[in-house]
Amino acid sequence: MTQITNASMHSMNAQTPLTPAPTGTVLPDESWRKSIPAQVFLNHFFAMDYHIQHQNDLFDVAKFPVFQQFHGRATDESRRALEKLLLNSWSAEYALRITPVVNDEQYLQSSLHWTFPQAYYSALFSARAFLAVQGVNVSNEELIRKRIGNMVVRGYYPASIGYYALGPINSYRIQRLPMAKRFTVAAKTDLLLPSRAGSAQAELAQFLKTTRDQRVKTLRNAIQNNPKTALRSPKTGEILQKFSVEQYKQLAKQIGYTTYFDMLSRLRISSTNREIERFVDSEIDVKLFHQSLVNIVSHVNSVHEVYIAKALGIDAYRQLVAKLPSYLQESFVRERMNTVIAPMLDQHQGGHEPTLRMAA
Question: Collapsing DSSP states into helix, strand and coil, what is residue 78?
Answer without folding.
Answer: helix
